[in-house]
Amino acid sequence: MMRNIYYSIVIILITLTTCITYNALAQGSIDNFNHQEFAINEKIDGNQIIEVLFKERYLFNKNLIRHSNRIAQLPQTRFILKGNQSVITFDGHDYLFNNGQIVEIKGVQLSKAALTAITERITLLDRIQKDCSESVNAEYNRENRDLQYIKAIDRQYFSALKQLSSITANIAAKARKPNASITIEMAMAQINIPDVSVNHNKENELDLTINDIK
After folding, report:
1. What's the Cα-to-Cα distance from 186 to each of 57, 121, 143, 171, 179, rounded to whole Å?
2. 127: Cβ contacts below 8 Å, ≥ 6 apart
3. Alpha carbon of 206 to those of 70, 129, 147, 199: distances in Å?
4. What CA–CA distance (Å, rounded) separates 70 from 59?
5. What is the pLDDT of residues 85-133, one digit of tens each?
6. 77 to each of 85, 131, 154, 192, how far by Cα in Å?
7. What Rg do the C-alpha atoms of the chain give, in angstroms?
8. How far, in Å, CA of 211 to CA of 156, rounded?
C-alpha cells in the first residue's frame, strides 16, 4: 500500500515538472534573457524597411535601363535586424530582438526551439540581402562592371527580401492556430535557405547562380 502511494507521488511530481518545463518553453524564454531588463531602444517597422529596400533598388534598376550612361545614387545597404536590443514589427507582431536572437514574438507562445528556428532563417536572409546589396553596389563602382554578375546577384537580393516577407507572413498566419509553436517550428524546418557567401573574389562570386535562392 505504501509502495503504491510512493509511486503515485513520484508520477505526480514528474508530471508537474514536465508541465512547468513545457510552459516555460512555451513562453518563448531564451537562456539568460530577462524580460524585465529588456530596454526597447528602437521599434522598427520591418515590413516597411523591406518595402523600401525592394523599391529603392527596383527604381534604381529601372532608371538605369532608361539612362544607361548615368548612375544615380546607389541604393542604401543596411540590415533589417539591428542593435543589441530592438523591437521589429512584422505583419502586426512585435519581434523582440536581443543580441542576435529573436527572444520573443509578442502575443505568440513559442518554444525555444521554434524561436531559434525563426532566428536562423530570418537573420540568414537579412545577411544575404545586405551582402548582395553591398556586392552589387561595389560592382557598379568598378570601371569595367560585369552586368551579368550584377543581374545574378540582384536576383538573389530580391529573392531574399521576398522570402523574408513570406516567412513573417506565414508566421503571422500560423500564430492564430492551435499549437502554434509546433506548427511554426515544423514550417521553419521545411524552409531551405542556402548559406550564400558573397565575397569580393570575382571568380568565386560568379559561381553564385540565380537558382541559389528559390
Report:
1. 33, 13, 47, 11, 11
2. 79
3. 25, 17, 11, 10
4. 14
5. 889 999 999 999 999 999 999 999 999 999 999 999 999 999 999 999 9
6. 20, 8, 13, 24
7. 22
8. 8
Long-range contacts of 67-72 (CB under 8 A, 24+ apart): 71/140
Cell of 103: 527572444
Give the DSSP letter of residue 88: E
C-alpha cell at 91: 505583419
Q: Report whether 138 contacts 77 (CB < 8 A).
A: no
Distance, first Cα to last Cα, the chain: 64
Q: And the C-alpha cell for 81?
A: 535586424
Contact 46, 168 (CB under 8 A): yes
Q: Which of 19, 161, 6, 15 is nearest to 79 (CA)?
A: 161
pLDDT band per the 50, 70, 90 thresholds, residue 202: low
What is the DSSP-derived secondary structure letter of residue 103?
E
